[in-house]
Design goal:
Helix 5 crosses helix 7 and helix 12 runs antiparallel to helix 13. The protein folds into five domains: 77 residues, no CATH class; 186 residues, Leucine-rich Repeat Variant, CATH 1.25.10; 113 residues, no CATH class; 123 residues, Response regulator (Rossmann fold); 98 residues. It is an alpha/beta fold. The chain contains 37 helices and seven strands. The protein has a five-stranded parallel β-sheet, sandwiched between helices. Strands 1-2 form a two-stranded antiparallel sheet. Keywords: Signal. InterPro entries: ARM-like (IPR011989), ARM-type_fold (IPR016024).
């Protein structure tokens, strides 16, 4: 076909397309896929629609664009395949981008007939342009062009703007190094023209060591920043550590951003600055949920003399930003206790995050833990209260460790929300915190009973056997429904107590001190739902117990809205099906806990629990702590040589017949090592002396046989002390005296 005929055919095709339902041409499906050689609806091949057969990459791209625009994407796909098989380099891709524009690549990528090849082409274009736009040598040459003619400067700014945030670091570096005022003005003006992308780097520049950089950053932010960015200007505006030039620039910037009169910057004040910074830091402290995604953060790098961008986990970014804001608030009011508490809590949280769940906090000079020790027990107790209120387990653990080292017995009776924060920690949802609280209290060595003493023992006992019973309380005005829900929770593994009123539920929760959650039926009485929740959250003994509200689906949104300000509260749709309840309950409760303990840590907890139980038994503190509930798992631990001693010492302090029988069983079991049996014998003698003889004649006979068979001198002596405590009569004593032959005596 001649060239003229091809042109006429092309015109005819366009004309026919225009006549056929033009209003819906873009909504119709393209014709069936064809190859370049197949014919179209007009009887023409794809080659006929083109002025010439494409061969070069540029011609192939032109063919793809033309055929797609004519509604023949299926015919264009073969040319697109051919283009990609040629593996075009970045230079060629950028040349095609300059010719057709980014919109053409996007339009091709959105055409389903060209996918996935068209998407591959779009990604190649984006990658090539990104590499070109971010090339350091190109950016530096554009920055140098800022000193050129006005036209060259305008062109450079336009191209710098297209590169985005990455142009801020080299400009700030040149500002750090430049001593030329004219050059500084050029660079500062360029920053003001670059728009939103350079705002985060400039916020980081507010922490630069150079006064000049901080002032320039404040000046430029006044032109570019939004009201949400004003947060970072409060400290430069009012901190006494900032020079006058920075304060003035930051206050003017704040006035611009917040819509104030720049001549009335006195309307902004130091008190407002401190309050804004504290609330922002507290908000970030609350955002401690573990998330997998990463987040960008800009920081000043002294070595690079500019800002650098880092990609960190979102949780770590929140802690870093929160710590920065808390410190800036502290600079405003160094003597305010609530700000001190927040800063110390944030610092402990960040250090705990960085070392990981299962690692102890670093100790020694310059560590946050040492700072906590130096801050005193009152400050650390406030950190513990804040951490529990916000559900921040890592800083609660750190605070408890510090309190165990520097606290005093008065902490068990301090009035924080009506009760001691240390006592409240015994009932925190996380097992790590419960155990840390129990051991911290034991380190304080209380001399008189205190609320929660039995809870200490239950926590230690649970550590001995890994898991203990899990208690729950159900509050429901309807006895049958309450019993039904209690049964459902029991099937899920909870020892459940049903009560009928909010007041009774509150009393049960404060009495037991081992409650995993409290379930409230939405229509309870005496107290009503809102009053019951308010009272549970106001008392530190119950402030951290999760609350489950159950009722019909239609009330879920209403009740969730009315309880939104209370922590650890969840609405659950009522059901008698255990699976339904479990699917709603378990994710909520599991989300409140830290990662599972490793096997090594479980062993450490068990050993520590046994140590403290044996300490109670041997230090005459059984008048404070009731060891009876710890008895059951002790005998099983005697077979572990590393745990046997403390397990037996603890048994020796439990005033029950079964404890005495367990000691006898160890003594009379030959498979135990002699030293283990010796410890058991000494504890049995002590037990009989203190609590009286509780074993029967058969067990006494077994002890006598064990004594006669004991060849180990220390074991034999220990068993002799047992035989002596059995109160032998005069006849038995006489027989023993006659049989005895002293060493060294004449035969």
């Amino acid at each position: 076909m001649s060239l003229n005929n091809r042109i006429l055919a092309l015109i005819a095709l366009v004309f026919l397309c225009a006549l056929s339902t033009p209003s819906s041409v873009w909504s119709q499906e393209p014709p069936p896929a064809t190859t370049p050689e197949t014919t179209t609806a007009t009887g023409l091949t794809a080659d006929d629609l083109l002025l010439s057969k494409p061969e070069t990459p540029e011609q192939l791209m032109q063919a793809v664009v033309q055929l797609t625009d004519l509604g023949h994407a299926a015919s264009a796909k073969a040319y697109l395949d051919q283009l990609l098989k040629g593996n075009p380099d970045d230079e060629l891709i950028l040349k095609l981008r300059d010719k057709y524009g980014p919109a053409a690549f996007l339009r091709l990528a959105n055409n389903k007939k060209l996918q996935p090849e068209s998407i591959t082409l779009l990604k190649k274009m984006e990658s090539a342009f990104r590499a070109y736009a971010t090339d350091p040598s190109r950016i530096n040459s554009l920055i140098d062009a800022l000193s050129g003619t006005p036209t060259e400067r305008d062109i450079a700014i336009i191209q710098l703007k297209s590169a985005g945030e990455i142009v801020a670091p080299p400009i700030l570096k040149q500002l750090s190094q430049s001593q030329d005022p004219a050059r500084n003005d050029e660079l500062t003006f360029a920053l003001t023209q670059l728009g939103d992308p350079v705002v985060p780097p400039l916020i980081a520049a507010l922490r630069a060591p150079q006064e000049k950089i901080r002032k320039i950053a404040a000046d430029v932010l006044g032109d570019l920043a939004r009201p949400t960015d004003a947060l970072y200007l409060w400290n430069p505006a009012f901190s006494q550590s900032q020079p006058q030039s920075v304060q003035v620039a930051a206050r003017l910037a704040l006035a611009k951003i917040l819509g104030k009169n720049p001549r009335k910057t006195y309307e902004l004040n130091r008190h407002e600055a401190q309050l804004v910074l504290k609330n922002a830091a507290l908000n970030l402290y609350q955002k401690h949920e573990a998330k997998s995604e990463t987040q960008s953060i800009w920081v000043w790098d002294n070595a690079a003399q500019t800002v650098v961008k880092k990609e960190l986990p979102a949780q770590e970014v929140n802690l870093i930003e929160g710590l920065r804001l808390a410190k800036e608030a502290l600079e405003m009011s160094p003597d305010k206790q609530d700000v001190q508490t927040l800063y110390l809590a944030m610092a402990l949280a960040l250090e705990a995050y960085q070392v990981g769940w299962n690692q102890p906090l670093p100790e020694g000079p310059g560590t946050t833990f040492n700072l906590a020790l130096l801050s005193g027990p009152s400050a650390v107790s406030r950190v513990l209260a804040l951490a529990m209120k916000q559900g921040h387990t890592p800083s609660a653990l750190a605070a408890l460790k510090a309190l165990g080292q520097i606290g005093s017995r008065t902490l068990l009776h301090e009035q924080l929300d009506k009760h001691s924060s240390l006592i409240a920690a015994l009932n925190y949802p996380d097992r790590r915190v419960q155990f840390a609280a129990a051991t911290a209290i034991l380190q304080l060595d209380p001399a008189k009973p205190f609320p929660g003493a039995n809870r200490v023992i239950s926590i230690l006992t649970r550590a001995l056997r890994g898991e203990g019973t899990q208690a729950a309380i159900v509050v429901d005005s309807s006895i049958p429904r309450g019993q039904t829900m209690a049964g459902v929770f029991h099937e899920l593994g909870y020892e459940t107590t049903p009560v009928q009123t909010g007041m009774a539920g509150f009393k049960a929760a404060t009495d037991r001190m081992d409650v995993e959650f409290i379930a409230l039926e939405y229509n309870i009485a005496r107290w009503g739902l809102s009053q019951t929740i308010a009272n549970l959250r106001a008392d530190s003994r119950t402030a951290n117990i999760p609350i489950i509200i159950y009722g019909p689906l239609r009330l879920q949104n209403k009740i969730e809205y009315s309880t939104r300000y209370y922590p650890l509260v969840k609405y659950m749709v009522e059901s008698e099906n255990t699976d339904d309840i479990g699917s709603q309950l378990k994710p909520f409760l599991e989300g409140l806990k830290t990662p599972e303990l490793t096997g090594e840590l479980r062993s450490e907890y068990r050993a520590a629990a046994l140590y403290w139980l044996s300490h109670i038994a041997s230090s005459q503190r059984t008048n404070i702590y009731d060891l009876k509930q710890a008895e059951q798992p002790l005998l099983d631990l005697v077979s572990d040589r590393s745990l046997a001693s403390n397990a037996l010492i603890t048994l020796g302090g439990i005033p029950t017949r079964t404890a005495q029988e367990d000691l006898v069983q160890v003594i009379t079991t030959p498979t135990f090592e002699a030293d283990v049996r010796e410890i058991s014998a000494l504890q049995l003698a002590f037990h009989i002396q203190k609590f009286g003889l509780m074993i029967d004649t058969m067990q006494i006979s077994a002890l006598q046989k064990a004594y006669q068979a004991a060849k180990d001198p220390k074991l034999n002596t220990a068993l002799a002390s047992v035989m002596g405590t059995l109160m032998p009569d005069s006849k038995v004593v006489g027989e023993r005296l006659q049989k005895f032959q002293p060493a060294g005596a004449l035969p």
